[in-house]
Write a structure and sequence with these properties.
Layout: H1 11-21, H2 31-39, E1 48-53, H3 58-71, E2 76-79, E3 91-93, E4 96-97, H4 100-114, H5 121-135, E5 140-144, E6 161-164, H6 172-175, H7 179-186, E7 196-198
Parallel strand pairs: 1-5, 1-6, 2-5, 6-7
Antiparallel strand pairs: 2-3, 3-4
Helix pairs in contact: 4-5
Length: 208
């Protein structure tokens, strides 16, 4: 019998690998993430998706939605970033962080599907969360946008409901220099025929 001598990577080693896998730390675009999701059978995902974009308040809204759905008897996945203490905080199911073993298994599956595709740290995190939610058979997934919306990795899956919390000047290098430009990017999570909630009291015309 032939046995493998390859040592399994630790979670820290996986994260370090994904930090250097893609040549750019930030590389906005959906083509690479979408290709990997299709290879993993996650286009479309087997659960409902709520995507949360905005300048401030995204994390609080994700936490509130996560709690509401869970208390109502639904199985709910939540993807947030950045983490405070441990990477595991980014991927939760029913309020419980993913374990190291679960994340390692997710990253092994993702690596096996990459081929010549490279993913950034955030993109790999997003794919891992979406795959975890499928494996745990959640009813609904609440996704926090990392930056902007239109070209963020979380937007590679269609939102059944979109929430735009607030719109202010942020990440100007990537999103634009005024609220109209930034609002247009954040509104990229909206899908035709699907509901959207805009919490900003004075949203830019580009959002409306």
């Amino acid at each position: 019998m032939v046995t493998s001598t390859r040592r399994q990577r630790t979670l820290e080693e996986w994260l370090a690998w994904f930090e250097t896998l893609h040549p750019k730390k930030i590389d906005l675009g959906l083509d690479r993430v979408t290709a990997v999701l299709e290879l993993l059978g996650l286009k479309p995902p087997p659960y409902r998706v709520i995507t949360v974009a905005g300048t401030n308040g995204k994390g609080s809204c994700v936490a509130l939605l996560e709690s509401i759905y869970w208390q109502a008897g639904y199985s709910v996945g939540a993807f947030t970033s950045p983490h405070l203490w441990r990477f595991n905080e980014r991927v939760r199911v029913d309020g419980v962080d993913a374990s190291d073993a679960e994340l390692i298994a997710l990253f092994e599956t993702i690596e096996a599907s990459l081929g010549s595709i490279t993913l950034s740290y955030f993109e790999s995190s997003t794919v891992a969360a979406l795959l975890q939610f499928a494996r745990r058979a959640v009813d609904v997934a609440v996704l926090e946008v990392g930056m902007g919306g239109r070209l963020d990795a979380s937007n590679a899956v269609d939102a059944d409901c979109a929430l735009i919390v607030s719109i202010d000047i942020d990440h100007q290098e990537w999103l634009g220099n005024d609220r109209e430009s930034i609002g247009r990017e954040k509104a990229g999570i909206v899908r035709p025929g699907k509901p959207v909630i805009v919490a900003d009291r004075h949203p830019p015309a580009s959002v409306l």
